[in-house]
Amino acid sequence: MTPAAVGGAGYAPEAAAPPTVGAEEEFVLVDRRSRSTVSRSLSVVRAARARLGGAHVTPELSQSQVETVSAVCRTGVEVEAEVLRLRAGAAAAAAEHDCLLVPSGVAVLGRSGPPPVLDRARYQALARRFGPVIHGQGVNACHIHVGVADREDAVRAVNHLRGWMPLLLALTANSPYSDGADTGYASWRSVLWSRWPSAGPPPHLRDAAHYQRVVDQLVASGAALDPAMVYWHVRPSAHLPTVEVRIADVMPDARTTTAYALLVRALVGHAVEVGRSGEPAPDVPDLLLRAACWQAARHGSVGALPGTHTRDCAPTDVGRLIEELWKRVEPHLSRHGDDGRVRDWLGDVQLHGSGSARQRRAAERHEGGLRAVVDDLAVEVP
């Protein structure tokens, strides 16, 4: 939840160097025989840190999770190499402790009772304050940080980004199964995560001072333990000079994570640009954004979503929304040579669906059912 290595210089379209980008990925640990979750995160994290460096692997809320934190990257080649390196190192560390490292938004096969909360002071404080909400929160997301050094730029960008969060969730949904059953959702993770009182879409923010007042009020109210617990879908980072996009499930493979990270960087670049131009962001009601995110979680990339990037929010086919998104991000993608990677991924989602569709195809294809889904997802040990 608190990355140590992602950040860097701010977004500057006139600069030769591309804006910085970094990825945090959360994974579930499962027993290699039963494929059920296991509480071995501390052992796996220690082994992974020996391979990857202490700043790049952390434990998470649940003892069945680990998180990888990338170095600061500037090119698509760097992002993919870093994601592959971290996944391989963490998977090898998991194997040392008889585990598989699985990139799914929630555990496909669970265990009896909720995974224990990690015995860390902050997590225990969360358990005391929020009670049973904390159970079932062994959920795995992908957070992307994009360098935006100026806080006013970051706040304006968040206003322009908030309307795109439902589409980004639809494209990245990767958690249809939970505890051995099909939930009927494409992203069950996002439904579970929405139970936190400080989770959801950010409000429309007037400026950086308004952002800080809202954060301070959330903490003072008790709805957030501290500023790091402002779990908005997109936010100015609490401790880094970045905009952090937090809407996605962890994705099934490094290629998808890389393409998504580059798409997010381009979308943040567009948002900074239009924010600086003085173009007002659509002031879409939080309630409608929540409803649109629920629809994305339910159906994934199939069907229509409210067009929350516009003022009228008219229901729009996901394919058309992707076209609208592409118009905005293509100049930024092309500028840095990222357009091919992202175009290929978006085309694949339109043809075959997101990670949730992949999981369901794996279940239908193999006699092993949901065990086969786990095996299909598990990161290979080099």
Task: Report on the architecture of this protein.
The protein is of the alpha+beta class and 382 residues long. Helices cover 45% and strands 13% of the residues. Strands 1, 2, 3, 4, 5, 8 and 9 form a 7-stranded antiparallel sheet that branches. Strand 6 and strand 7 (181-182) form a beta hairpin. The chain is globular. Residues 1-15 have low confidence and may be disordered.
Biggest sheet: strands, sense, closure?
Answer: 7 strands, antiparallel
- Helices, by number, come to 13
Q: Report the structural category.
A: alpha+beta
Quaternary state of this entry equals: single chain
How many extended strands? 11
Poorly predicted regions: 1-15
Tell me, rounded to a whole number, the average pLDDT: 92
Q: What is the CA-atom radius of gyration, in angstroms?
A: 19 Å
What is the molecular shape? Answer: globular
